[in-house]
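Tip: read the tokens left to right.
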């Protein structure tokens, strides 16, 4: 249970635009334009149970082994 990992996994925009409202992102709140957008996005993540780590936990190769 490491929240730090999730923070690193946040999707970064290559366009330099806030993924929440498409405004130019602020270096202080990258990739968001403001703390407000950062908080909103983070809240959506938690609510949706967005978990990239789960992909790594699903070892399909192991399931194929009989
Ligand atoms: Zn924004």
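Filled-in amino acids:
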């Amino acid at each position: 249970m490491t929240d730090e990992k999730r923070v690193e996994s946040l999707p970064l925009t290559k366009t330099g635009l806030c993924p929440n409202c498409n405004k130019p992102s602020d270096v202080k709140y990258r990739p968001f334009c403001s703390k407000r957008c950062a908080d909103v996005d983070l809240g959506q993540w938690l609510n949706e149970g967005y978990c990239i780590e789960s992909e790594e936990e699903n070892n399909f190769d192991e399931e194929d082994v009989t």
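The first helix runs from residue 3 to 8. The chain has four helices and no strands.
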